[in-house]
Amino acid sequence: MKKPAYPTLFKSKSIGGLRLKNRITMAPLYLGYAAEGGRVSPLLEAHYRMMAQSGAAMIVVENSSITPAGSGSSRTLRCDHDRYVGGLAKIAATIKEQRCRASLQINHAGRFARSVEPVSASDVPAFGRTPRALLKKEITTIQKQFARAAHRVQKAGFDLVELHGGTGYLLSQFVSPRTNLRNDAYGGSIDNRIRFPIETLKRVKDQVGDFPVGYRLLADEWLPGGLTVADAVVLASALAENGVAYLSVMGGTYESFFLPDVVKKSRRPGYMVALAQAIKKAVKVPVIAAGRISSPARAEAILRDNKADLIGLARMLWVDPHWPQKARRGDDRKILNCNTKCDACFQLVMKGQPAICPRWTKEKRAAYRELFH
Ligand SMILES: Cc1cc2nc3c(=O)[nH]c(=O)nc-3n(C[C@H](O)[C@H](O)[C@H](O)COP(=O)(O)O)c2cc1C
Fold this sequence. Notes:
Strand order of the largest sheet: 3-4-6-9-10-11-12-13
Order of helices and strands: EEEHEEHEEEHEHHHEHEHHEHEHHHH
CATH class: Alpha Beta
Number of helices: 14
Strand content: 15-25%
Bound molecules: flavin mononucleotide
Largest sheet: 8 strands, parallel, barrel
């Protein structure tokens, strides 16, 4: 086979004892393709088949709920009961058939959950709703739910599981000094604020043994008084000490994503790479950088300059599933790029509709609509 145009991007890498065939991974991307009620649908299966066929080394499947009370929407995948294992197993098999590693993200949305009574570290309102601060015994219950969900991911045949500590969801709500105002062992100092995610990781690892556990790490909330890189570095180091398999770094939460400055920032290629780099400096575990890594040349430079170990493509891979093949050939200019001024996918999923990219051909858009139900 011809040598790849970008040698570092196509070098293998080991994470959690597993070999990845190259450095390209898919970052989790919720697109509203699961069936109503959070079950695996034909569209979801077709979508992940295409993502795995792309040539990426690992697909991290979008967030799935560890409890109905922690779900973000009616089409969010679920892994809160054994009855979901069969559907999830189909997704794992579909991905692995393509010689691609399969990871699944598990989540509790906390104060962003659609539940009647949202819960969080403290009663800090979000979008006009005030969550109830969790009692100590409820914290333990949620940690057990994470552990049981991780076990289902293992039973479904995935290669890894990822804890969702990003996007301002529950794990990060405990770490943030803005949303955690507790004065017990889970609040106050940074060592106390990281207690919930660290205990959760330990419980998960106790349950799943040597099954690799990754973590989506919120490295900056981009909000006044919010979680900063300094907090994230402390958490990252503790996660690494406790055996996390990889850290997938991101910035922003639902409360900052729509601020004009953040919107501007997130239109820039590689807008979260500096966060990944700051985390990578602090830990030895593999770090994934994501955020508009639109060109293979940029991806290669990130790896070569040691800013991250792996590249996470979310919309970039979804918009053009041939990104990895074009990268191998050095055909950067042929890549169908996500329009930086467009947020159609986000708007559609917020309305409960399946995400469809305006850049796709009419035929491809129609095929997606056909499969959606
Ligand atoms: C519509 C949409 C859904 C997303 N869903 C998830 C998710 O389920 N879990 C997660 O950790 N990040 C999620 N993200 C964040 C992505 O993983 C990624 O960090 C971000 O989109 C930047 O990468 P990209 O420019 O390649 O899309 C989502 C982003 C978008 C736009």
